[in-house]
């Protein structure tokens, strides 16, 4: 097999990154955009020892699960790489990810629920982080082509709240109007690297963050004045990111005008969110995810609850009024400030959040003899550490509710908890990210023996 060769392939599977999988002369071939059940003529793009990458030249037999979408760029960029699949099949794909991982871990007897569909299939994101680059001599916003840093210019981001798309385009036009240079990542030059925009569905507030190479630039006063005129914009922040890096946000924020946070709401709890704080991006699905997690926790009025990887305290503060007390841990200090302020904002006096790494704070709490009845964990993709798990078990919780955005690390961690005497019998996938291959899942571990 060699580059540029054209071959006929039968697609048998979908990889966890949503690439079509085919087998050809002992090689596994990953075909961009192809779906199981399809026969395609594909062009080989890259050949490795045991596998290759290819793209579709022509679909010979089309899958009934394929949707012909308006803009193929959504699929070509990493923005929405499942957008060519019917929504019910996307839900099935996500459930299958969990089933396959359980099988690999020899945990076939664990039940996997149906994936909880998102109330909105498109336009659900309350936040967009969009690269700004120069393309053909013009400042553009868009998204990178998969596995590259080639910007595909876009004005409709498909999964983002259309109100955010409107502001993205308006800000792009203002940057063009005042000739603000786009960031040039090869020479670490230019100015605006990303637009980061958040909008609250509950209050309509919109925060615009310009991620810039410098703390200031000559056109900033005029740019700020004009952004202020965009309907709905309630704050402008300049995030200073001087480094040559792929990390989107720098460490320092300057409030240019407006409110330092935007206010959102989950259920009947209000949240103020700072620029650096994590907030779940699917506003309508989040309360449904939390309801499921909270139901699994079966909380009692006397329970002591730990909210680990708490962000701005959304889970702990949603349950605080129904339990004895809540302690939270989160590594981003602005998010911890938000969490403690959000407790006050909602007249909650039995919740306290501390800054620190969960894998360091939990062992300290365990060593002090702190006990918990229920622990919620909601870690980033890399999951928990053995230190965290060991310490969590020492606080002898009846239940551990695990919310995960990566079922592979979740199942690894669940096995670790099994070794410590905890059991679980069901995992429920929840679709937080329609049109993308990302899988969110919830499970509850219960103590099997003392
Ligand atoms: N439970 C929250 C946040 C979940 S996202 C919610 O539902 O909104 C995961 C959070 O873990 C992020 O806020 C991130 O800043 C935080 N985090 C990442 N690594 C961490 C660590 N080692 N210790 C504690 N918190 C961490």
UniProtKB/TrEMBL annotation:
Enzyme class: transferase
E.C. no: 2.1.1.190
InterPro entries: MeTrfase_TrmA_AS, MeTrfase_TrmA_CS, NA-bd_OB-fold, SAM-dependent_MTases_sf, TRAM_dom, U5_MeTrfase_fam
Family matches, as PROSITE patterns: SAM_MT_RNA_M5U, TRAM, TRMA_1, TRMA_2
Protein name listed in UniProt: 23S rRNA (Uracil(1939)-C(5))-methyltransferase RlmD
Organism for this UniProt entry: Lactobacillus helsingborgensis
Domain annotation TRAM: ranges: 1-58
Record keywords, A-Z: Methyltransferase, S-adenosyl-L-methionine, Transferase
